[in-house]
Amino acid sequence: MAKTIENYFDQMRGTRVWRSVFRGGTGSSTLRRSLAIQQNVFLHLFSTKVRRRMLSFSATWYLGTLTLGTFLILVSTGIFLMLYYHPSVPQAYADTKDLQFVVSSGLFLRNLHRWSAHAMVFLVFAHMFKVFYRGAYRPPREFNWVIGVILLLITLLLSYTGYLLPWDQLAYWAITVGSNIAKAVPVLGNNVHFLMLGGNLVNANALLRFYVLHCMILPLTAIVFIAIHFWRIRKDGGLYSHQSEPKTLAAKAVPAPAGAVAKGAQ
Amino acid sequence: MSDPKDFVAGMGSDFRKNPVRVAFVTRRTSAQVKVTDEDQVQTFPEVLFRALVAIELLTIGLVLISLAFNAPLEGLADPSHTPNPAKAPWYFLGLQEMLHYFPPVVAGVLVPTLVVIALVVIPYFNINIEAEGLFLKDRKRRLRVFYVVVGLFCLFLLYFDVYVALVPTLIVAGFMLLAAQSSPGSSSAFRSYLASKPLSYWIMTWFLFELVVLTAIGTFFRGPGWSWVLPWRS
Ligand code: HEM
Fold it and tell me: Is B104–A183 a contact, with Cβ atoms under 8 angstroms apart?
């Protein structure tokens, strides 16, 4: 049975239409598996091979993967929420209420979006601390750590801008408390505050600004930086594992068989 | 000429069955390929499959939570009616707790800016790369610096009545003192573990501890007028 399913799948991968879309080709040879990664614009962000040790749960706790998972859930549920939501006062609140009580599955959609948002903030912090305690920020990964810090800030901003959108008391006052902090910025405080809210108070302009940031600018920025983050993991030599680092290697290097070592010519 | 130690290459005995690509890269190029004989798996399908399973389990968990608990929705926003207390989202409650003690420029602008800068520079300090135990070298002098810095910081927190931040600081400082009295050869595994920990470890652990404590206090223990309340007595 399993054999036949596999056969069908292989047959499908051999068809002209499939091959016009996916360039990897049929078969499960090492070459084909490598091509499946290399010939795909999204997958080629990843390396074709990974050290087996780095797959164990203890190496990463899969926290980066799970952060990506929450992001994917948030994008898909967010798009559905956008179909019902108008970023205007007081329509925003009425729409949220409709989602809660009228739209079929609206309540579930909103719950999933909200709890996933909390989970993402939690996971991104957890991932950062895990990376730190593994020492995986070490060269040549310094810049990927910096990209990570940028992703942390984007995640916080995404969550913060989304918080205002239901336009209920909770949203309104949380954003008021938060945005008042901007006023304390030396010299430019009031300008920053005004720029952020499109006014001196949290009002309809602020809602529209937060909506544009939350649904357009920040998710797109996040996608770009996540792509760079993954690509850098490949370029930096895969996930950090202490034993495979240059220093450790040099310390225990044994002369390789003749012909296997070439000196890098410059 | 590059330093020949830049490269280490070898062939596994089964290289016919399991070919490895050997790449030689000079220092100036961007790729950071290092050849090792470590056991590797193909990303497609093994790694992607695992990632998929992890994300699926996460989704199942979040779906169950979403079926069981409803997202909060209060009354329509009313600018003329301020709830007491007005709380920021939970991940900012540590900051809001700080705002209770310090002026907004300090708690709202200076502290977050310093935290972000501190995070960014971590990988650019050699002391964090080599990561040697804090008190293993130059112990006397480092202990003296430790006493002065931690002492001054605790006085500062005391002066502003920030007991909620003082207690975690003292606990971490206690462990640091224990680390200073231990060595990697200590008979207790825990103490030799502490002794091997570098400065960045202590700072980050202190930061994590404060983050958790302050966020928890802001979330559960603060009521009207930011007064201290007990969550189980409402
Ligand atoms: C949207 C947020 C983020 C996503 C989706 C993400 C995703 C990932 C994934 C999937 C990995 C692979 C290994 C793992 O799971 O640990 C990874 C590695 C890494 N992440 Fe993130 N990450 C995010 C935020 C961050 C943050 C906030 C930091 C640190 C400040 C960070 C620093 C790193 C570093 C340095 C690595 C490489 C670790 C190594 O080489 O072993 N990332 N990230």
Answer: yes
What DSSP element (H or E) covers B41?
strand B40-42
Domain of residue A140, residue span: 59-238
Closest CA to A175 of A185, A165, A184: A165
What is the number of structural domains in chain A? 1
Question: Rounded to whole angstroms, how far apart are CA atoms B76 and A92?
Answer: 10
Q: A150 CB less than 6 Å from ligand 1?
A: no
Whether A22 is in a domain gets the answer: no
Q: Assign residue A94 the CATH number of its domain.
A: 1.20.810.10
Number of domains chain B contains: 1
Q: Is A68 in the pocket of ligand 1 (CB under 6 A)?
A: yes
pTM over 0.90: no
Q: Do A52 and B70 touch (CB under 8 A)?
A: no
The per-residue pLDDT for range A196-213, each reduced to its tens digit, is 999 999 999 999 999 999
Residue type, B6: D
The helix/strand/coil state of B25 is coil
Using CA coordinates, name the residue in chain B closest to A148: B120
| Residue B118 belongs to some domain of the structure | yes
Domain membership flag for residue A77? yes
ipTM score over 0.90, yes or no: no
Residue B17 or A251, more confident: B17
The domain of B89 spans 85-226
A118 within a domain of the structure (yes/no): yes
> What is the pLDDT at residue A226?
98
- Say if residues A128 and A152 touch (Cβ distance below 8 Å): yes
| Closest Cα in chain B, distance from residue A164 (Å) | 10
Q: Which of A29-33, A109-113, A124-128, B152-156 has the lowest mean pLDDT?
A: A29-33
